[in-house]
Known about the structure:
The chain has 14 helices and twelve strands. By secondary structure, it is α/β, with parallel strands linked by helices.
Amino acid sequence: MFRDLTVPPWDDAEAWGCWQGHWALRAGTIYLNHGSFGPPPRAVQAARQAWQWQLDAQPMDLFVRRFAAQWFAARSTLAAFVGAAAEDVILVENATAAMNLVAAHVVLRPGDEVVLTDHEYGAVRRIWERACRRAGTAGPVTAVLPPQFESADQVVDTLFAAVHEHTKLVVVSHITSPTAVILPVLAICREARRRGIAVCVDGPHAIAQLPLEIAALDCDFYAASCHKWLSAPFGSGFLAVHPRQQAGFEPVLLSWGRLPPESPRRWSDEHIWTGTRDPSGFFAVPDAIGFLRRVGLSAFRHRTHALAQYARERIGALTGLTPPVPDSPTWYGSMVSLPLPPLDAPALQRALSERDGIEVPVMEWAGQFYLRVSCHLYNTPGHIQALCRALRRHL
Ligand SMILES: Cc1ncc(COP(=O)(O)O)c(C=O)c1O
């Protein structure tokens, strides 16, 4: 029987309570969905607004005289943070834009196959369905991962059972969207290299949630958004492209690349100026990195994992259902997806939002219902307890 809880013994409310004030979240909302849309802290909001103010005050100065240097500076800071060479990285609006660029670049011929796991994000699947349809190939092929995750080898073996001689590309999430599982991408990339197959890692949930060394993964492409766990402004993301894929890597939105009198020289130059747009989100990415560095990245990861683990424990006690991964930071980080009994998912999500002020996604995936709880710095054990109380009423 579920009990209401007092503050768990590991919660140092004094040390962590102060972070709530760094966000401007609406009073009365318990926000447990940083994994979908991660609001930026006030410091990052202010940095973005300062850039917008400068842009509106003197567009010529910002676009013509300062834009490129600022783009390069933001790229260098971001590339260092994710362990990639700056020259291998371009700034894009979001992971979706990054994945579309990859789909436009990879040449599929009839008979070629693209392999995706069954845990991939729905919109990513749609991108590859269209790419396969346009190329006249069947697919994409779906590798169905095990219902209970046990080891990296088990995941690699199951994934590569769906890979054949005609497989051109494997698309795999670093942290999956519906199930919040950390997949063993290093082992997957190694096996793909051994077989000469390209890999695109879909990584928006990994940025800040996990320590990241993209160069060490040796993947062909790494696509991500910075407006999830990094809490950079909405509309900021990146794509890392390995040097072996850079020749002929073209923009989807062709523009100047570099504003005249400059002209594009390197592959990445083509992706700097893609038409007139508000660049303030990109320029404030270093502020988001600076913010989390000041918190301390390992402290951030430890704290938010502890909250996610608390949610797993309490909601598991309520439902009696076992999540698909072992209780370990190897398998999940700051976000946890918890199975629910059969229910009306949209109705529960709506009730939690409208009656309890709790924003948390409820979804059906592979015939099972899940509640995905995201924990960031502004969340507290009290938020998880409020969620449990609401669930007890609704279930
Ligand atoms: C695994 C995964 N890939 C890609 C995306 C797309 O991200 P965005 O909407 O920022 O482009 C999401 C969004 O939630 C996601 O969870």
